[in-house]
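Wait, mind explaining this?

_____
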Amino acid sequence: MNWELVWGSLGPILTGAITGTIPVALASFGLGLLLALLVALMRLSRNPALSAIARIYISVIRGTPLLVQLFVIFYGLPSIGITISPWPSAIIAFSLNVGGYAAEVIRAAILSVPKGQWEAGHTIGMSRRQSLVRIILPQAARVSVPPLSNTFISLVKDTSLASLILVTELFRQAQQVAAFSQEFMLLYLEAAVIYWIICLVLAGGQSVLEKRLDRYVAH
């Protein structure tokens, strides 16, 4: 074990995580959640056209590999005159992917709230929109925390694919150090351990968030 190399490479790899992996994951997840909420509401809409568009979008995203989606945006769009730089390409691809998966999570969470909650909002004079925002979504948020947290953890790991379109994140930094030192196994294992630690921290945050949102659940 070349400990000198491990400690020497730790700085660049952590820098890649802090300046690349985490910002890309946070930005993509935030945008993806907004898109997912919109798509979920479209799926629940009584308008057949909106519902159909949402179904097709979800089917395409869930039926194609994330790597292909990433390559279509970064390498494919330039062939039709649309060129997007690496960072925006990665964020767009990851956001669209999160939106497709999280939409079904949010839709299921909304449907899990008892219909009596809608009726209660209507009884006290709330519109359907007000009931959704003030009563339904807070309860649905608690239900959706575990699957959405898993989606975010998966996204953090999936950001390693951004290295294939030249985004300097955790794994690309490990690749660069490995190419220079020729210690591929050691550097890739080091990157894997760092990903693992990040995911452990996120899992702990998930538990805290679940407890905070538990007060919104109707028992």
About this structure: Residues 23 and 75 are 22 Å apart (CA to CA).
